Amino acid sequence: MHQPYYVTTVTEGREKLFEHWPLARCVVKELIIAEAQGLCKTFAYVVMPDHVHWLFMLCRDSLSNAVRQVKSRSAIQINKLRETLGKRVWQKGFYDHALGNGEDLSGTARYIIENPLRAGLVHSLMEYPHWDFRLGSRPLLRL
Question: Is the dihedral of CA 82, 39, 36, 133 positive or negative?
């Protein structure tokens, strides 16, 4: 508990689902709901065309359950929007890294949100809509 984790999860077949605004926003909404329900505290996230990076600290439950909840709930919403009920949205599993005491939370968060720049999707981070970053008490606002 109270351990910061950096998680990456990928869409099934690396399908670029999140190039579509409404589908990307389903994931953003579920990340925010997970925090609102007291499951975790999110520090940063970015929803890329075919994967998601998420930096957070667990407040309750297990890492697997937190990621499962976000993936499951977002998949249900995505499938409703696409009218593809039951279709697999996410690859099984996820990559995780538990940040140690000496690791820079701020630097890791910055690395996460700069993914669209490194991928050449935008010239400025302000051009990319599916990210947020918070290390203080400011709530996540990028719905």
Answer: negative
